[in-house]
Specification:
Structural class: mainly alpha
Helix content: 40-55%
CATH architecture of the domain at 51-152: Up-down Bundle
Amino acid sequence: MPRRRPLIAAAAVVLGTFTLACAAGEPPPPTVAPATPPDPVAEPSAAALPAVCTDDCLLLLEQDARDLMKGSYCDTCGGDCPGWPREPLGCDEVDYLRNCMYARLGYTFDKAEEWREVFDKEDWYQPRDDFRWGDVSPLQVRNANWLKKKRERRDCVR
């Protein structure tokens, strides 16, 4: 019988904790089944992925488009990777991506009011009076030029 005393004492502590929690108006903590394995086929949630995996504009600010098409997108984003671009780029999307890159960097679009109106609707758009073309990285310029040439060649879905 002496072995039951620690067990009874532990049960009393647990019961007392639940009683105090209920008396304080707080719900008891949830119980979780022990040793519940994670779902092995679950895909990572969009929140678990890096932001660049869900936003092509951010992606092109950080990674070379040529490398993305050769597989670095799958290395970065993993999962059941369809590669990049995930779907054929439409001509309007090509234009949007090129301008979005500059908008993310704070370009003001003083001479392209239609694009300013598009990006003013985005909560992330912060035009910067101190924007300088010299601050755009060579990688970003290369990606923007790639998009521009893609559009000029009409190498996009109309």
